[in-house]
Amino acid sequence: MENQRKHERLSRRDFVKGAAAGAFSVAALSGLSPRAYAAGSDKVRLGLIGCGGRGMHDTLRCLISAPNVELVALGDIFKERVDSARRRFTSRPVDDEGKPTADNVADKVKLTEETCFAGWDAHTKVLATDVDMVILTTPPQFRPMMLKEAIEAGKHVFMEKPVAVDPVGVRSVIASSELADQKGLTIVAGTQMRRISHLVEAMKRIRDGALGTIQSGQCFRLGGAMRGWGPQQRDPSWSEMEWQLRRWLFMTWLSGDFIVEMHVHDLDLINWALDGSPVQCVALGGRQQRVEPEYGDSYDHFAVEYDYANGVSVSYKGAQQDGIANPHYGHIVGTKGSARLDFGRAVFEGDYTAEIAWDRHDPCLTQHADQIAAIREGKRLNEGRQIAESTLTAIMGRMSAYTGRAMTWKWAMNGSKLDLTPPAYEFGDLPTPEVAIPGKTRLI
């Protein structure tokens, strides 16, 4: 097996070149426009690229969010994940009374040996099948490239957040999103907070002036160190690349660090409330608890001051450390009062008072139902730029903390040349990057 892995080599140039060629051939065969759909009747054929836990979660909810959606293809770098996902989707879970449960989707699964793929090119092979839509849930490092190939191939895309780990990737996602509009394709991002009922209503009231003129905000997300995530020990047969892929959450080149990979949700909430992106930021951060080698080059705490237009300043504090307080909410302050926004409710205080509770409807179902409906009705639904800008908001904070330098949105979006892509996508040696040291790590 290890000898096989050593020969599975794909340079970055060959990877991108092959992706583009595969996308062109599929587009040439299928045409530039998506199929016409009769509202609520025609099947939507789904492919999953990235068969980990989040991929299975998103695919399950997509399958049960609307009628006539079928899973026809799977792809992942690792074959055992493809096999595990296939077993899960084709099982028939029942409750204590023997009745099918809500997650019983076996009748919607049309997978075959010929449509389940493993390896570095698994995503290209999924796109070469007759899928109408793909779910992208590989580590964020691969998302810009896979989105590009999917849009060029004429596929609708649901992609998890974040959508990049560096400014080069953000710019690629924006370009792909613009191409999607030209081709009439939908893109939905996994920012389910934007479909939680009480947050949607809270944003409407903020827009209607419930807080007056917004002046400042806070964003808190503190929690545990996630020490139980992923394999705890390295299998002797794994190359360094494979070990990093299996521990990708703690590798900045793969995840973007936790401020990008997880806390993009919370920063997206702030961007949503302020209806824009920050103009500049300055940050601090480091690692005090998670210092072992298996935590790669990731930090375990960040603090960022974001400045938005019109003098609005928002402070973000995030940490993944055991034994600390665990606040998790956003707070917006205006001239007439304030609003506290969290997963369970929105509370307005000041001249206007109100408490809006979550209606308990699953936003993860809503996001997929919205996309399936847009596909069938030929409606524009493209969240690519929105999530790309929220991703860059988080990336800016990480870059500032890593280097100790302040930076502007304009420079990060247009000037930064930071590209965390490794020299080659291959199983083999890959040194873990050194932990960033503010004041020493170079700003690129």
TrEMBL record:
Coiled coil: none annotated. GO terms for molecular function: nucleotide binding. InterPro entries: Gfo/Idh/MocA-like_OxRdtase_N, Gfo/Idh/MocA_oxidrdct_glycsds, GFO_IDH_MocA-like_dom, NAD(P)-bd_dom_sf, TAT_signal, TAT_signal_bac_arc. Residues 45-186 form the Gfo/Idh/MocA-like oxidoreductase N-terminal domain. Signal peptide: none annotated. Residues 201-339 form the GFO/IDH/MocA-like oxidoreductase domain. Pfam families: GFO_IDH_MocA, GFO_IDH_MocA_C3. PANTHER family: BCDNA.GH03377, OXIDOREDUCTASE FAMILY PROTEIN. This is Gfo/Idh/MocA family oxidoreductase.
